[in-house]
Amino acid sequence: MARRLELNHELSKLFNELWDADVNRFVPGKDYTIDLQEKAGFVQQGSSVARDSASEPLFRYVNEERLKSIKTFAAFVSLLDNYETSTGVAEVITPQEMAENNRFLDAILETEVMKLTHQYLVRKNWSKPSLNDFKSQLYDIWFQLYTREKGKGPDSCGFEHVFVGETKHGKEILGLHNWVQFYLQEKHKQIDYKGYVARREKSRPDEDDQVLSLQFSWKGLVKPVGSTFIGVSPEFEFALYTIIFLQSQEKVTREMVRIEEYELQIVVYRHGKYIGTAYPVLLSSNNEDLY
Q: Is 194 labeled as catalytic in the residue annotation?
């Protein structure tokens, strides 16, 4: 039987500090509104059909001026169209795209969230004190290309998988755990939201929950369950996943944490020296805020 995860108090305390420092986070009901609609039905992985329990999009409103004016979000959005989403098709990174990657890292490294993250990683001896060394480390973990399908050349990287999304053999959606990409793809009629996926303890999420499990279709395929933070900044997600990635050499690391009222499992898969995938799983909400 799998060992039941225990709450990691050290990481919970740190992640709450990062949450409080995340001044770029979008506030539900103010910077964006969502429409959860109905509960999604069960769908087998690899299916291309799902009952649509949501006739309307998930996002009713997002403050696009804020998306464009906040440096980290603007730099993040510029990266989303830099990838060939099908695994098995080699990626070619142009000098312009490399410059965009670096611009994004420069932007997030200026934030309090990433400064606190760097300080923590240096204390643990998982990162070097030099900002340039830390930036190189982040670049390797997130942007270094690797091969998901043997013999096909480098076709993926951690950033593409987690934040952009990929498809495999035209049969399966991989990754795509980011709310900004979801919103933009939905706006361009590429994503069709199918409904929320309920947790065991709670039948229906709230419109202001900032961690959700969703079902959606994208590029003719269905993602039965996709977990994502909603409203958080890209630097916040980068921070959480990087910390959990660096603390362990295991193929899969799962840490149970409490952030604000949310009890979460943060899951990070390692692909050699790089991030394979990373996402949150909401276990429960409306918990007492301990930190």
A: no
